[in-house]
Amino acid sequence: MSHIAENIKEVESKVAAAAERSGRKREDILLLAVSKTQTVETIRQAVECGLTALGENKVQEIMDKYEPMGEGVHWHLIGHLQTNKVKYIIDKVDMIHSVESLKLAEEIEKRAASKNRVMDILVEVNMADEESKFGITPQKAEAFIRELSKKEHLRVRGLMTVAPFVENSEENREYFRQMRQLQVDINAKKIDNVVMDVLSMGMTGDYEIAIEEGATIVRVGTGIFGERDYSK
Ligand SMILES: *Cc1c(COP(=O)(O)O)cnc(C)c1O
Fold first, then answer.
1. How far does the centroid of ligand 1 lie from the alpha carbon of residue 192, in Å?
2. How confident is the model over 117-149, as pLDDT tens digits?
3. Other C-beta atoms within 10 Å of 222: how many?
4. Which of 66, 112, 180, 207 is the most buried (most CB within 10 A)?
5. pLDDT for position 1
């Protein structure tokens, strides 16, 4: 078995165990393979193991890999998105996880309308209020989502967070719990056109805890592909 196939087997068994512990079904959780910095050849190994949903944080990497990877894969944009780059990915990605400004949302709306499609989006929330992180504060989420709900070519599917980098992943449990609560609270407001069923939270260091706290998408890079090499 290849190195990557072995890694995936291990991640899969941890995902299944975390789902089981929390009384959830494995199929309600998407394991998103974060393929940033990885080559097409490497990514294909993960796809062959059944991981067809791929997460990238840069528009350029999606553009470079889109044609070579071909059909049968689903791209998710998970990193900060500049307004002037929306046009390059609007017909390539299934979901944008990192919506955090009205200006960006308006550009996605405009570009999606021009392609006659509805884009699934997540609102990025900075749960720990870290200065270095993108995302809106939890306090602003409801008002922001009310604005987004008026846009015909956006579908707000849920929330995304990048939790703090910590030694002990248990420290992030509270942020995951709070994000799930935020989802419940906003759904209870019954905003027109908004049914949030997605929680994108948890990375290599803390995806098991995120699943226990309700994650429906976990974004795993290092755990699948190994340490990233940024030198290339
Ligand atoms: C890189 C990245 C990940 C994956 O991180 P790992 O620790 O390698 O699993 C997840 N989410 C976002 C937004 C990222 O940029």
1. 32
2. 999 999 999 999 999 999 999 999 999 999 999
3. 13
4. 207
5. 76
Dist. CA 204–CA 150, nearest whole Å: 35
Q: What is the pLDDT of residue 83?
A: 98
Q: Kindly state if the Cβ of 161 falls inside 6 Å of ligand 1.
A: no
At 66, list the tokens: 């889109």
SS (H, E, C) 90-146: CCCEEEEEEECCHHHHHHHHHHHHHCCCCEEEEEEECCCCCCCCCCECHHHHHHHHH
How much is the pLDDT for 19? 98
* Overall CATH class of domain 3-225: alpha beta
Whether 99 is in the pocket of ligand 1, judged by its Cβ within 6 Å, is no
Residue type, 113: A
Atom of ligand 1 nearest to the CA of 222: 8
Tell me the two tokens of residue 213: 């706290």
SS3 state at 207: helix
Q: Which of 218, 219, 224, 229 to mutate to test ligand 1, by most ligand atoms within 8 A of the CB atom?
A: 219
The pTM score is 0.97
From the alpha carbon of 36, which atom of ligand 1 is closest? 1
- Sequence ranges of the domains in the chain: 3-225
> Ligand 1 pocket, 104 CB below 6 A?
no
Q: What contacts 145, CB < 8 A, 6 or more positions away?
A: 123, 156, 186, 191, 194, 196
138 lines ligand 1 (CB under 6 A): no
Report how far residue 104's alpha carbon sits from residue 97's, in angstroms, rounded to the nearest whole number. Answer: 12
What's the half-sphere exposure (Cβ side, CA atoms, 13 Å) at 83? 10
